[in-house]
Structure formats: C-alpha cells, structure tokens
Design brief:
The chain is an alpha+beta fold. The chain folds into two domains: 8-45, no CATH class; 54-231, Beta-Lactamase (2-Layer Sandwich), CATH 3.30.450.40. It has nine helices and eight strands. The strands form two sheets. Strands 5-4-3-8-7-6 form a six-stranded antiparallel sheet, sandwiched between helices. Strands 1-2 form a two-stranded antiparallel ribbon. It is globular and about 60 Å long.
Length: 233
Amino acid sequence: MELDGASLSDISNELGLAKSTAHSHLETLRDRGYLVKQGKQYHIGLQYLHLGGYAISRDRSYNIVREKVKGLARTTGERAQYIVHQNGRGVYVFSDRESTSAVQTDVRLGKQAFLHTTAAGKAILANLPKARVDEIIGQHGLKAETDQTITHREELFEVLEAVRDRGFAYNRGERLEKQWAIGAAIVGGDDTVTGAISVSGPKHRMKEKEARDNLPGELMGVVNEIELNLAHT
C-alpha cells in the first residue's frame, strides 16, 4: 500500500527475493483474489475486504456502534469514527461523514494509527492498566506525527490521568496538522475497553464547538447509550 502498486522487480528488490520466487508467491495471491494485476503493477485485491468483513462481524458491538456513529456525524456535521485496539495500535473500523462540510481525511477502513496520537487512542489508553500502556510504549514508542504529538512517557501519563477524570480525550493537531478531535472510550461492565468513538474536524470549527461545550456532551451521551445497549445484548 505504501508503494500504491508495485512491479515484480520492485517487490523482489523490496523483499530480497529472487524474481522467480517472488513471481510464484504473487501469482498464488493473485489466483486467490488477494492481488490484482494492472499492466505490470500488482495491487491489493478485494479478498482482504472479505476477511475484514468477517473480522468485523465477529464483534457484537459493531452494528450498535455503527448506527450511533452515523447519528453522531449527522448531529455534529463533522466526521465521526469508531476505533478498536489490536496489538498496541488503533484500527479504524468505521468512519462516516453525513455533511458535505465535513473534512475528507486519510481515514479508511482498516487504517492503523498510533494510539498516543489520536483522541480515540488516548481514550483507550486511559482505560487500560498502566502496565499495558507501558508495554505498548515499549513496542511502538511515542513517534511524533506532528510537532504537537506527545513524545514523552511522563507527559502522556499526565494526559491520560486527565482523560480518566473528565471521561474524554482531545487531539489538537497531534496526528494531522490543523485537525482537532475529541474521543471517548466504550467500556463494558467488566471494565474491558471495546473501542472508542471520536469526532474530528478542522481546528477552527472544533475549537468553536468545544467552547460551546456541546460536543463533549453529545459524544458522552452517545457512548453511554452504546454501553447500555451492549450491557443488555
């Protein structure tokens, strides 16, 4: 995906494989629908979407969360998204923008992000045991995506404590410059973190909505509804 398509030579060089070996693997993946070939370029095929759909269907919360996220996008006029955490990274499971004024970003189904750089990710981290957060930091580090990204462990833990106190997290240009977001975690009755929802938009609009204090209330209301629904399904 980083190459947005690659030739046999590109792939064999990237992987350090003989062309014949790389060709054999590529054609096997192509036969099974995981790759498609356009001219001399190989691209990701839609069979991965089938696998992703199966993984989503195993999450009993998905259908409940999906409808609530769509509603949140509609009422706020901004982009709303649902993120889960796997292997210490945040994975975008669903994203929606009902308004034409909502900003188009690089978010797509299955995209991964560092948890410390997003509002939803920080909301998830705030509800994980401290030892688990340390494991994630040890595994992935605290990479700077912008000059606003938190890159020091002590600062991150201070922020996570504040998130726990108020119930939601902010992202003020920490993953993408000039994009702000607010996120809150979905926590089950056994204190297990299911995932997190966030609303994101351009700095000037998000700053205004936060100042009116509408956005945090809307977000927390939706999260509470989801948690109640999940508790009785």
